[in-house]
Amino acid sequence: MRALIDLLRESRHTVVFTGAGVSTLSGIPDFRGEQGIYRRVDGDLVFDLGVFLRDPGIFYTHGRDLVYGAADHAPSIVHTECARLEAAGKVAGVITQNIDMLHQRAGSRTVVELHGSPARHSCLGCDRRYDFAWARERVARGEIPRCAGCGGVVKPDITFFGELLPDGALERAGDLAAAADLLLVLGSSLVVQPAASIPLITCRCGGRLVIVNHGATPLDRYADLRYDDLASVFARVAAEV
Ligand code: NAD
Questions:
Q1: Which CATH class is domain 1-28+74-115+165-241?
Q2: Residue 145 above 90 pLDDT?
């Protein structure tokens, strides 16, 4: 791990790219890991836009734990270290696929949420906006959140399969990745596109790539360094960077 510590110390513009694996340390299951959600639930169905439009109850039944339950979990060492390194001027920003808002709760300021955020909800009928707490309260009561104005179904502003990424998110992530001299991929299977191709931007621009993930990813052959376990890597980062 000496090589990673050296790379981090030398870097002038480190960017962190995170997936659901960083939040397993907070007790939130990932999708495709050993205890992943896909072993219990068909995530492709729960997060599919067409399914949501036909029957929003499927999302809200499973979302009670998967999305709104995240508020009961605390940031992990990975989240807090990313925030500490940003405050110290070492990390330029976090690009995340996660929808649990734990990077912001840990104190990270530059966070690109590639797959949107449940911090905001929108009425599908009249576009009226609602916040996380408003929706969470209704979902906890077993309700499908409905607009107080028009009665339409309210949807979280997270990116479902079949939707475009939020306006500008891909561009902001691409700019961060292009400027990075070091990009850390943390806890992602790197199979959800277009997010999964962002680390390649850093490689093409001459930056280094480090992947920390249980199990192989399609970008392993581009990685300068590869580690398996986030907890042990970040224990060293916390102690030595
Ligand atoms: P993924 O589930 O496909 O991959 C997570 C990877 O992290 C797996 O390969 C797993 O083995 C690895 N991992 C888990 N714990 C680890 C640890 N302690 N150390 C090292 N590796 C570990 O998730 P993904 O790549 O982020 O893509 C799937 C989609 O899942 C994203 O779009 C995201 O929106 C969504 N998602 C988000 C959350 C969340 O916000 N917390 C949770 C589940 C799914």
A1: alpha beta
A2: yes
CB atoms within 10 A of CB 104: 18
Catalytic residues: 115
**Which burial class, exposed, middle or buried, applies to 238 when counting CB atoms under 10 A from its CB (0-12, 13-18, 19+)?**
middle
Question: Are residues 98 and 116 in contact, defined by beta-carbon separation less than 8 angstroms?
Answer: no
| Cα-to-centroid distance, 64 and ligand 1 (Å) | 18
Please tell me the residue having the least CA distance from ligand 1 atom 18.
230
Residue 31 and residue 214 in contact, taking contact as beta carbons nearer than 8 Å: no
Does ligand 1 come within 6 angstroms of the Cβ of 159? Answer: no
Instruction: Work out the percent of the chain whose per-residue pLDDT is above 90.
Output: 93
Give the integer Cα–Cα distance in Å for 187 and 200.
16
Instruction: Quote the CA–CA distance of 129 and 3 in Å, as a whole number.
Output: 47
The answer to whether the CB of 41 is under 6 A from ligand 1 is no
Which of 28-32, 75-79, 83-87, 184-188 has the lowest average pLDDT?
A: 28-32
Question: Which residues of the chain are in CATH 3.40.50.1220 domains?
Answer: 1-28+74-115+165-241
Decide: 215 in ligand 1 pocket, CB within 6 A.
yes
Please state which CATH class domain 31-72+117-158 belongs to.
alpha beta
Taking the alpha carbons of 38, 223, 199, 183 in that order, is the dihedral positive or negative?
positive
